[in-house]
Amino acid sequence: MQSFSNSLFADAEASYEDARYVIFGVPYDGTTSYKPGTRFAPNAIRAISYNFEPYMPEYGIDLSDIPFTDLGDIYPEADPEAVAAQVEDTVSMILGDEKVPVMLGGEHSITIGAVRAAMPKWYVVCDAHLDFQDEYRGSRYNHDCVSARVRDLGIDNIVIIGARSGSREEFEAASHHRIYTADEVHDRGINAIIDEVKAAIGNDPIYLSIDADAVDSCLTPGLGTPDPFGITHWDLRSVIRALAGQAVAFDYVEVLPNDSEQTAAVAAKMIREFIGIRGHTARQ
Ligand code: MN
Ligand code: MN
Fold first, then answer.
1. Mean pLDDT, the chain cut into blocks of 10 residues (284 residues total)
2. Which ligand has the nearest atom to the CA of 144?
3. The model's pTM
4. How far is the CA of 175 from the centre of ligand 1 (A)?
């Protein structure tokens, strides 16, 4: 039969029942402080996903042979705390069905509800920002408060890779967690950092969150809060390749599709990477 394109992530051809990985979008940017528009990212990421071949030569697999699906988008409430509850419900459903959620932002505040549903032993995030504000602009669910809310859930094992921005108070609040600044990644190399992180987390389950602004804004400028002197997209891919296997859930947030699609392209490729490397490992 003729194949028809649709508005879902490319190669997400399994039914929900058969899927091992479940993509969904949260087009929400209600607490964005600088540039709005991350609500348009889920569909921008899906659109550019059709730019890539199903075949992944590094793994010798076709992405279309891995059972994954795309549910489309949540219709988000206006209030970030209500959105967290919507996300928590969705992620609980997917985890309850023994599948792996892959969430497309939207802004980073959506991660709070997902972590609440997953309650992992470790929270590992790539981010320019510490997100350790206790409250910001009148809300404890602002996208600058994500790490603080994760800590409040009792998840004390927090790893932040690519950090370079936060208040003095945030750096103090984060000081007993594992913070790897972008400078440190640049100086020591990402593999040394990954080895250290892997030694600390062992085989424990993690939640893996990617805030797109971890990557240097000179490389991927489509960001709500662009920040230069970041890690590279190569570094980010290394983190995902190293940690995807033990992630109970994954998200990719804070893409603002106002550039020439560099940022959405990296996001789409990293989502393929997450699903592809896990599917590849499962077949070995
Ligand atoms: Mn963030
Ligand atoms: Mn950030």
1. 75 97 98 94 97 96 96 97 98 98 98 98 98 95 97 98 97 96 98 98 98 98 97 98 98 98 98 95 78
2. 1
3. 0.97
4. 17
